[in-house]
Structure formats: structure tokens, C-alpha cells
Amino acid sequence: MKKYFLNKMSTGKRLAKRSIIGMRVCALSPDDGLFYPGRIHAVKTPDSPRDNQNCINLTPNTRYSVRFDPNPVFIPTRRALYEFSSSELIGDGFGNITDVKLKPGQKVYITNNGRETCGIIVEHDVTMDEVTIQIQSASPNEAPYELVKKLEEVRLSESRRSPRLADQERDTDFARLADMAGDRRRSSSHSIDVPMQFTQNGSRKRRTSYTQDEREYLLDGDDMDECNAALVLMSLSCSPNSPRQAWESAIFGTSPGDSIQSSSYSGSSSPPLSDDGNVSSSSMSSNEQKYIIKQNLHKLKINQHNVKVHIRRGQRTTSLSASDEGIVMDYGEEMARKRRTRLFKCTWKNCGSTFATDQQVKSHVRTVHLGPKNNDDEDFYFTDLEDEDEAIETDTNTTSSPPLPPTLSHSDMARPPHEDPEYQRKIVGNIRQGLLMSSGSANGQSSFAKSGPITSGSNTVIHNYAWSQTSPTSPQKHVKLSPRPSTSYAPYTLPSSTYSSSNYPVLVQQYHSLSSSSSQASITKLSHSSPPQLPPPPQQQHTPVIQTTGKCINQSGIAKMRPPGMSTPLQRRTRGENKKCRKVYGMDNRDSWCTQCKWKKACSRFGD
DNA sequence: CCTGCCGGGCG
DNA sequence: CGCCCGGCAGG
């Protein structure tokens, strides 16, 4: 049930997968014994050919180097990396949160009232599977309250955003930034899209309202996309025997229904390479392959991330670029910042030299390995590492690799990872379980939250960890949900405390979960120690009835949790079962419709 | 498909 | 604010 719940929240149909490096996990801080979020920075597998039968070079002995996200409570040494074994990590494909006992003081995230809420563990009763969590009220003037949740409902890191929003944002970015007009919805409308900037004036077409901050957030939050892309390519590189069709579909975009395909093709100024039938010939040489791969990856702009494919002596390996070279536009600064922390490693056999710039590494490859007469592109012989203090040893495995299951291929590489953490969790878990034959249990936590910088070593990113603080200047969005005199749709205010404009979409994920297990929590203690002073909380015209179950029932019968100070979340109106004006009067008597119905708003005449 | 309606643009 | 409409979710 839980799985379906999570899937429901993401409503995703496309699948996704990712690389281990960069994955968000949680691990115990050696200092205070609490879990903190971080990213897998490196994977170290001791040389052990017998265990190394898999293409991603993971064995039960693999050590995962984790860089904790900076946060005010536990401040890891900036450059410090902490090593863990897979069993010590909590995250997709690793350990499950339900396997651990949470200590008091542990910071957790729960879905409360359909909204991600941060809390502090007060008590964890393992036998009863009850976690008492103290939640800071949205209003700083109200006392914290406590919730009791099941452990499986608790997450150790922030969750992801609403898939719908993410979708919109992604489409937006694609259309505007990558100069690609198509998206999956419009692609079915038989209309030719005009780039956004040409339609914004004099058109009723809705334009996006995302701020620069939000777009940056978007990019930041999508760092797993490059992992998606990499895993796709990795599966290709690791499985020379994999079905040719799958391999082509990933690179050449020949898979039907692949949204990446449609968007990239519709926005591509040049015809797809697959118009050349020879391309798919199995006699394609290595050079041809890498050229084609490179070209097409560039076109695909796999979710705006650059992926480099390294081909070396007939063997393909992949690595990620930490920068967004695929896009120009507004992100120059961001990219520059990321680029500063990069390191370039020569991937020539037995070399491994590292360089500060790609120019240097190219020069190195050219002079030391390739020689002036070789026409090979230096690009294929180096990889850019993310950071400064440790080399990431990811692509050194040269043992022959079994093909990945076909279900792990790339038909869905377009899907951003935050859309379907559940599926990814399973996939990654399956990969790991299959390859390692170790027990990595899935868990319900989403480990792809935007909680840290894309470059974990960067010290220039400010984190939003002050979950109990309120910034009076942070933007608030007031949304009037319905003009009709409904009592359950009072204007709501996004809590300004934790979330700046740059990440507020995280909050707008609620309505998917309203009818689900998120409302199983019970309010065990409600204490208003001090009356609100400033700013005044949103007016609630009707106080929700708190039943013994702790559920607040609104008029439409939807269970809602509303802690003190918490305002009504954005929620899509349940579909009314009553007759609506359209139904009653018919299209012919549109004049008789209520205004709301005329406006395609919620019917005010036949309310539910 | 159809329907209800949210989110948002335009004047 | 009135009006309109794209698009989504759900049936």
C-alpha cells in the first residue's frame, strides 16, 4: 500500500534509474549518532575480481564515501568525507529507515497535512513502531506540537517536489532555455509551437511565472538527471551484448513514446542522425559510434546536462560532467561556480593523472597518449571529477560485464528523478541487489531532495536548514482557491519559514497525498502557549473538527490534518458529484450557467 | 474520449 | 475584476 501511495504522489509513468555517485543518502554522523543527509561522493571497491562481476563495480565490500550536506547542527569538516558500507547507509537501494532506531533529536521529515514537514524525534518506540515527532508550528509564535507516526512514514531527508510542478518547470525550461518548443503535451496537439519568447506578447498563452530563483532551484534539484543519463549510457557501455535496438533507442531516440525524443527532435535544428540508415549498422566503427553518441547526446541535452561518453580501445565507459554545458543562458554563474570545483582525470589506461582544467587534460592526452597523428578526440580520454580531495574511482573496471536487464534501459531517460523516487528506489535497489547479492532493502524515503548543492564540495551554497525560523521578508504566495463561499478553501499562506522562493515548490506537493496515509498521524499534544502576535495567521473561518483519530474533516469529507498555525494546503477540489451547470443546462444554454461554470471555475450553483 | 476546475493571461 | 482558456486529473 505504501508503495502505491508513493507512486501515487509522483503519478509517474516513466521510469528512471541513476548512478550511485551523487546519490542522496543518509548516514550516521560519527559525532552525534544522528542521521544526516549527504551524497555519495565516491565508491571504493577493493580489487577483487571475483566480486567484481558487475559493470558498476560494486561489491559487498564496497565502501561509500559520503559527504554530508552542511547544516547548522552537525557541521562536517568541509572537505571531510565519511566512509560507510552499503549496510550503513539509508537511501534508495541502501538501508531502509525502518531498520534503524532513531535517536531523540534526530531531524526527520514527514508528510503532514499533505505537506512535507520537518520535525525532531522525541521518542522512537521500536516495539510499537511509533515515532513521536515534535513539529515546529508554521507560525513562530505557536508552540511546537507532536505527532506520532509510523517509522515508515518518516524520512531522513527532504522530499522532492510535486511532479506536476516539476513537470511544468521542466517543460518551461526546455522550451525557453534549450530553445526547444515541443513537449509531450503539445506534441500531441498537431500544432507547431513557437518559442516562448515569441509568444509571450499578444498571446493568451500562459507564460511561466517562475522566478530566477526557482529556475535555479530546478537545475539544482535535477542533478540526478545526469545520473540518469549516465546510467543509461553505463548500461550501454557495460552490455555490449545488449539488444541493439535498446541501445539505439537511447542514443538515437528511436524509441516510440520517449518524451526526450519528441522534445529534442522537435527542437532540433538539424535532422536526427537516424535518418542515416547506416548509423544503426552493427559494423559501425568505434569512432563512428562515439561521434554519433556525442552528437546525439548533445542534441538530446539530456535534461540539460552534459554527458560525455568515453570510448577507449573499443570499450565504452561513461562519466558525468558536473557542469551544465548544454545550456547557456542564465546559468553562467552557476556553472562557473560548479566548474571551479572540478577536476579532470585522464582515463587512459593506467594513467589516471588529474588536471585542473579540461585544457590541461586534453593537452595531456594529446601529447602523452594520443600523439599528434591520432585523430581521436581528446574528449574521450578524460573524465571530469566533481571535486578536489578524492579521486572518484568509478570507471576503472575492465572486466566483462553482464548486460543489465532490459527493463533498465533507457526508454524513460527523460524522466527527472524527483518524479518517481519510488520506482527508482526499486530499480536501484534491484540493480544493487542483483549485482551485489547483498540485502539492500528499499525504503520509503525519498533521497533526492533539494537539500544541498549540486557540488557537494562547494562552500558557496546557503542551505535552508533553519526550519524553525521565519523570514518576514521571504515571499509569500496567497492563493485564492475558489471564489465561492466555501469554508474549506480559505486563502492559504505558504509558510515562509523554511522555504525561500527558490524552493517553495517543494511545498506544493500536497494534494496528491491528502487522501492517503499521510493523515494517519495523530495529534497527541496541542499546546498553544502564546497567542499569535505577528504576523497574524491566516484566518480560518471554520475550525476543523478534530476527531478522536486526529483527522480534521472538511466539508467534502476529505481528511485533513491541520496543526495549529498550519494553513490550508493547496488542494485540488474533489470532483463534485452533483450536477453542474453544464450538465443541467447543457451547452446550448450556456447563458444559464453560473458564472463560475462559464469561466471553467468551480461551479458555484451546484456545489458539492 | 468527457468533465470539472485550477492556474493564469488579458483587457 | 470579468472573462477566457490551456491543461490536468479523474472518470
TrEMBL record:
Stretches assigned to the C2H2-type domain: 344-374
Keyword Transcription regulation: yes
SMART domains (UniProt xref): c-clamp (SM01366), ZnF_C2H2 (SM00355)
Pfam entry (one): DUF4772
UniProt-recorded Gene Ontology molecular function terms: DNA-binding transcription factor activity; RNA polymerase II cis-regulatory region sequence-specific DNA binding; zinc ion binding
Keyword Zinc: yes
Annotated region described as Disordered, given as residue ranges: 182-211, 258-287, 392-421, 519-579
Residue ranges, compositional bias (Low complexity): 258-286, 396-411, 519-531
Record key words, sorted: DNA-binding, Metal-binding, Nucleus, Transcription, Transcription regulation, Zinc, Zinc-finger
GO biological process: regulation of transcription by RNA polymerase II
Segments of skewed composition (Basic and acidic residues): 412-421
Biased composition (Polar residues): 543-557
Intracellular or extracellular location(s): Nucleus
Protein name in the entry: C2H2-type domain-containing protein
Species this chain originates from: Chironomus riparius
Classification lineage: Eukaryota, Metazoa, Ecdysozoa, Arthropoda, Hexapoda
